[in-house]
Give the backbone structure.
Amino acid sequence: MLTNVSLARMGLLSILLSVAATWAWIRFSKRESIGQEIRQEGNKAHYQKQGTPTMGGVAFTLVFLVLLFVYGGFNYETFIIMAATVGFSAIGFLDDAAKVYKRQSEGLTPRQKLILQFGIAGLLVLINFFSTPEMATQTVPLFGWRWHWGILWIPVLAFVIVGTVNATNLTDGLDGLAGGVSVPVFLTMAFLGAKERLGNGVPTVAALLFAGVLVGFLFFNNHPAQVFMGDTGSMAIGGALCGMLLLLNRLPFLLFLGGIYLVEALSVMIQVTYFRHTGGKRIFLMSPIHHHFELKGIPEQKVTASFRFVSVLLCLVTIWLW
């Protein structure tokens, strides 16, 4: 049985182990020259970050997986969350490794990423759909509607998962942004998981552990960042979050819970579409939108703090709508 004391111990342990693992990864990265490559067409203020240790997501993701296995045991719920986390993190790892090996800011092609992502997302949804009949009916947030689409939900939910993973990846663009925005998201998931009392409480444990490892990582990732999480970490965040929401049968609630991720992704889609249809004109100074605010003269730390605050507000809205 989960108690407040046991949850507090798990949270503290995840923070401490994440701090230790991230510190060790930074030392390893410096020794092996695993550094961040900055896009030449990106924000020039970020050129000074060239060579900063990257792929820090390896450290906190491994800590999360080990602790989840220890505290969650080996069961169906643990399997789904671990499979989602490992699957998408592995794609991010391949992308990061390609960048480091080639010494450039581009790794896997968008086509390669999407094929791998839809493959993993489709498999996860199929497994959960046939294991959990309730998935045939989804609750639409805000209106509280219950839509029974049956098997038609499979491609819709797979698309939601892929979109979320790519959106969390896009959010990782400033020091401490993706991690700081995601901590309240996972804490909210822990609260809602406890409220649902699903199975043996694995979603609650997993969400609390992920929040903890992100807090530990932020000791080194806050401005000025000593390490970046890379696609390995940002995709792990999206994968873990979707795995938990799959188990709670509430993936549509990402519309609010992951509101920051959604806005980041939409800003890129709007920018690209407008650019193509207007012969090169732009709506934002740069996308994703956090770079737009940077180029408007707002300090990086202030942009990050503002996004974190909005994330907390969206989490409170999600709890209200749940």
